[in-house]
From TrEMBL:
PANTHER family: AMIDOHYDROLASE-RELATED DOMAIN-CONTAINING PROTEIN (PTHR43794:SF11), AMINOHYDROLASE SSNA-RELATED (PTHR43794)
Organism whose genome encodes this protein: Geopseudomonas guangdongensis
Start and end residues of each Amidohydrolase-related domain: 64-412
Function recorded in the entry: Catalyzes the deamination of 5-methylthioadenosine and S-adenosyl-L-homocysteine into 5-methylthioinosine and S-inosyl-L-homocysteine, respectively. Is also able to deaminate adenosine.
Class in the EC hierarchy, top level: hydrolase
SUPFAM superfamilies in the cross-refs: Composite domain of metallo-dependent hydrolases, Metallo-dependent hydrolases
Keyword Transit peptide recorded: no
Protein name from the UniProt record: 5-methylthioadenosine/S-adenosylhomocysteine deaminase
Record-linked NCBIfam families: PRK09045.1
């Protein structure tokens, strides 16, 4: 337990604090204190100002919230942003993205692409993200170095992938990484079988056994399109989610990404196994994949988180914008304007994401003892006036330009909109050089 007497390292004095848990609360005239990277105080301003603190930071006009959690993405695909637009999923994947990955994805690509993605995400208020890509050892090194928090997944597919000739090699290397990072304070390893249509039963069974042994998450694209479900029914007579349930993969650690197709039996399986759904509305819209019935899931008690997917299908890593899209789309899909209100939308983008990734003991809400993973949004701009409900303003009237400061584990990674550990000019130059190589080839 944090000491109650030692001086605070940092006392933040924003206009509003939105802890997310308890739900619906907005604190005014309050302060948040940090010691040793953890939240140790949330108290009325006057009371907090009486306490000793190494640094006090007035944040007038800002809303302090938990850092956003991007629960699904392919970080290094930031270097493929805009490479193949306006195509349906399977054409996009099979005719454009997989050939490009076979040609370009190596350690340097993953290092540079992941750095670019982390920079973009921090500038958008994201303090934790899930990464489902290749060379996880390279991605995790970048996460370690840049100070952000992440779930890194081990790729599992039926065919060779960049960085692994086969599943044996991918799992062997992945397990080494699990062991190396077992006690890392900010990196959590998980398994990333790509999708039901690219991973065989025997491979899925190996993933299940290993995930059980290691108490690790399983992160997978599932029911992304109606075509995926239809094809599985034609080939085997079984829906993909039902197959995963039969193979024993579903459980509280299972993270089903997309789920645009949900019948009553699918919903029962998700509820029964306490699995999470990760909703990626903009990728689903752009690839015309379908609509995830978020309100129906929420009302049934399913944990729904939100993700951007990769920058090649979105085309940005803007979780605040994604959450706004999710809130608007949920109303259209449910046929009800009360679906996914602003407070629940923020919860989906923070605590639900942390819960899906199994890191909610550490982050996702502003509660005593949790890591100080925070974002300060500036609501003083003209486009945010007047402020009746700061959470409504955040979800419906703010863009990434409102993100002022970001802390992870109490360390400032974005200060006044500037990255403290990454050089933007260098990132821009590297990204442009990759773009020139890729289009010039
Ligand atoms: C080890 S998984 C990485 C693999 O997934 C591909 N990918 C990116 N976005 C999607 C998507 O929306 N559906 C299915 N597959 C996707 C990515 O290009 C990598 O090959
Ligand atoms: Zn994806």
């Amino acid at each position: 337990m944090p000491s109650t007497t030692a001086p605070l390292d940092l006392l933040l004095l924003p206009e509003w604090i939105v802890p997310v848990e308890p739900a619906g609360v907005v604190l005014r005239e309050h302060a948040l204190g940090i010691r040793d990277g953890r939240i140790v105080l949330i108290a009325p301003r006057a009371q907090a100002l009486a306490l000793p603190a190494a640094e006090r930071r007035e944040l007038p006009g800002t809303l302090l919230a938990p850092g956003l959690v991007n629960a699904h993405g392919h970080a290094a695909m930031s270097l493929f942003r805009g490479l193949a637009d306006d195509l349906p999923l399977m054409t996009w994947l099979q005719e454009h993205i997989w050939p490009a990955e076979a040609k370009w994805v190596g350690e340097d690509f993953v290092r540079d692409g992941t750095e670019l993605a982390i920079a973009e995400q921090l500038k958008g208020g994201i303090t934790a993200f899930s990464d489902m890509y290749f060379f996880p050892e390279v991605a995790s090194e970048v996460v370690h170095r840049t100070g952000v928090r992440a779930q890194i997944t081990i790729p599992v597919l039926n065919f060779p992938v960049p960085g692994a000739h086969d599943t044996d090699e991918a799992l062997r290397r992945g397990l080494e990484l699990f062991a190396d990072l077992r006690h890392h304070p900010r990196i959590k390893m998980a398994f990333g079988p790509h999708a039901p249509y690219t991973v065989s039963d025997d491979r899925l069974e190996r993933v299940r056994v290993l995930a059980e042994q290691l108490d690790a998450g399983i992160h997978m694209h599932v029911h992304e399109t109606a075509f995926e479900v239809q094809q599985a029914l034609e080939q085997s007579g079984e829906r993909p989610l039902a197959r995963l349930a039969r193979l024993g993969l579903l459980g509280p650690r299972f993270q089903a990404v997309h789920m645009t197709q949900i019948d009553d039996a699918d919903l029962s399986l998700l509820v029964q196994h306490n699995a999470s759904v990760i909703h990626c509305p903009e990728s689903n819209l752009k690839l015309a994949s379908g609509f995830c019935p978020v309100e129906r899931l929420w009302q049934a008690g399913v944990n729904v988180a939100v993700g951007t997917d990769g920058a090649a299908s979105n085309n940005d890593l803007d979780l605040l914008g994604e959450t706004r899209t999710a809130a608007l789309l949920a109303k259209a899909v449910a046929g009800s304007a009360t679906a996914l209100d602003a407070h629940r939308a923020l919860r989906m983008a923070t605590l639900n994401g942390a819960r899906a990734l199994g890191i909610d003991e550490d982050c996702g809400s502003l509660q005593l003892g949790k890591s100080a993973d925070l974002v300060a949004f500036d609501l003083s701009g003209l486009a945010q006036q007047p402020v009746y409900d700061p959470v409504s303003q955040l979800i419906y009237a703010c863009g990434r330009d409102c993100v002022r400061h970001v802390w992870v584990g109490g360390k400032a990674l974005l200060e006044d909109g500037r990255l403290s550990r990454l050089d933007e000019d260098e990132l821009r130059a590297k990204a442009r050089a990759w773009g020139q190589r890729i289009v010039g080839a």
